[in-house]
histidine kinase
Amino acid sequence: MGFAAIRWLLKIRAFTFNLSLQVKLILSFIFVIFIPVVLFSWYTLNEESAKAMKELLENNKNVLEVEKINIENNVELMGWTGQLALSNREMNNYLQIEQFQDTAQVLHIKKDVVNSFQYFLFNNPRIANVRLFTDNRYVNEIWPVILQESRIQSKPWHDDVMKQGGLPWWEIQENVGLTGMPSEQMPNEPFMTYLQEFKYPDNATHNGILEISMQLSDFFSQTFSSVQDKNSQLIVVARNGQVFSLKDSSVFKQNGAEELISSIKLTSHTDYETVRFEVNGHSYLALQSYIPSIDVHLVNMASLEETMEGINHSRVRYIVLVSLLAAFLVLLSYSMQAIILRRLKALRESMQQVRNGNFNVELPPITGTDEVGELGFHYRKLILKINELIQDQAARQAAGKEAELRALKNQIDSHFLYNTLENVKMLAEIEGQYLISDIMTSLGGMMRYSMEWRQDHVMLSDEIQQVQHYVSVMNIRYDGRLDLRLSIEPECLKQESLKMSLQPVVENAIKHGMSRMHSKDGNLLITISAVRRGQACVIEITDSGRGIPDETLGLLNQMLRMEEHAYQEVRQLFVRKENEDGNGIGLRNVDQRLVMSYGVEYGIRIESQEGSYTRIIMTLPYRVMGGG
C-alpha cells in the first residue's frame, strides 16, 4: 500500500514537471482558493444532510412518543375498567351462586344488574365490549356480558391467561366474535383485549375470565390515523410477529410493511433504537421501541426517498457553483499571469537559441529589480562566461589528447607485467618449481582482477576466486598455515557484490589472526559462508584467531559508521591505547562502500569472542547478476 502511494505521487510529480510555468501557477492559484471552497462546500453539505436527517429523526421520535402516551392512556383506561368490573358486588354475587335461578331471578339480573353494569362501563366509546366468562354451571348466560367459559377454552391465549395467576394478559385478536352468527355483529378489524382471571372470595378457586376489548384503531390511534406525515408510518408488531399498520400508507408503496419489518432486527429495549437500511434500492429509517406492558414492538418506519432527493439537489447546486467558481478563477489567473510571465517568455526564447548553438544571441531587454530582472542579469553573465569557457576548452583539448596517450602507455605496461608473470610461470614449470608456478598463477589472477576495473559490481564467485588467489600467495609467507574453507549456497554464487570487498576483510583476518596465535598448531582457519535470508544475502567471514575484547569490539562497531572528524579522533586514541595500527580502517572503507551502493540498512558488523574467534557479517540485498 505504501509503495503504491509513493509510485502514484512520483507519477503526479513527473506529470507536473512537464507542465508550463503558467499552467503550474494557474493550478496553484486554483488549489489555494478552490480546495478550501470545495472543503467548505463539502462541510456545509454534510451539515445540511445531518440537519435534515436529525430533523427527520426528531419528528419520527415525537410521533412515536405521542403514540406511546396514547397507549399508556388506553392501558390505564382498560385496566381501570377491569377493576370496576371485578369490584361490582351484585355482579360478583351472581357469578358465585351455588344453585340454578328461576326465570324471574334471571330477568331481574338482566334488568337491574347487567344493564346498569353495561351503562356504567360503556360510558367511554373506545371500549368495544366487556365480557365475563365463568365456569359456574349455575350461572345463566346473559348476552353480551355474561357467558360460559367453555366458549373461550379453545382460544390460544386461554392457557396463557390462566398461567398469569390473576395478573392482566394483553392479546391482539383478529376477531372477538364467539359464534360467527349473523346476529353477532362484529367489525372486521383486530382488537386489543385485556384478559384477567377472577376467583372466588377464597382467592384460590377459579371463577372465570374477564375480557375487555378495544378496536386496534382506537388503541393505537396514531398508527391508524390518516392524518400524519406521508413519509412515515407507525407499525405495530405483535407478540407472534404479526404486523398491523395502515395498509394504504405511501410508505408501503414500494415495499410492504411485513417486508420492511423483516429487514430489521427487533430488540427488547424500551429506549428508542434507530436503524437505517435499504430494501430493493429504497432507503428507510426505522425508529423502534418495545412496550413491555402489552408485549408489542412499536416501529415508526420512515421513507428517506424525499430526504435523499433534497440532499442530492443540494449537492448538484454546490457542484454547479464550485464549477463556475473554478472557471472564473482559471480565466482570472490566466489573464493576470500572462502579464507577469511576458518577460519570462522572452527569456525562454533566447535560451532556446542558445541551446541550438547560437551563443551570439541578442539578449532580451529584461529590466527590473524583481526576481525576473535578476534572472535576466545572471543570464547575461552566464552567456559571457560560456564564451570564455569555449575558448578555454580549445586549449584543454590538447592536454586531453596527451592524457589519452599516457593512459594507453599504462595499459601497455600492465600487459607487459601480465606477459612477464606468464613467462616466469612457464619457466618455473620447466624447472619443476610447481609451487612457484602456482604462486605466479594466483598472483597473475589477482593482478588482472584488481587492475582490469571495468565495473564496480561482480558476482560473489569472482570475489571468492580472488580471495583464494590471495590466500594462496599469503601461504608462502606463513608456510602453509592458512586454511580457507568455503560454504556458499548455490543460489548465492551469482550474488551481486562490490568488487574488492572480500579481500580487505580476509586480509584483516590474516593480519590480526596470525599476530597473536593462540592455537597449539599455529594454524589459522578462515571460513567464508554465504546464505540467503529472505531478500538479503548474508556473508560471514570467520577466523580462529585471538578474538577481540568486548570493550574494543563495541568501539570498532561504532567506528564503522562515525563521521570522518570523530573517526579520526577516536582512531588516534585507539592507536595509542592498543600500540598498533589495527584501527578498522579497512573494514570502515568496505562498510562505507556498501552503504553508498545499497543503503544504510546494509553493510558489515563485527562479532567476536576473545580467545576464540572473530566474525565479520556482511549483509547485501539479494540480487542475481543479470537476473534482477
Notes: The chain has 16 helices and 17 strands. The CA atoms of residues 329 and 335 lie 10 Å apart. The two ends are 23 Å apart (CA to CA). The first helix runs from residue 2 to 17.
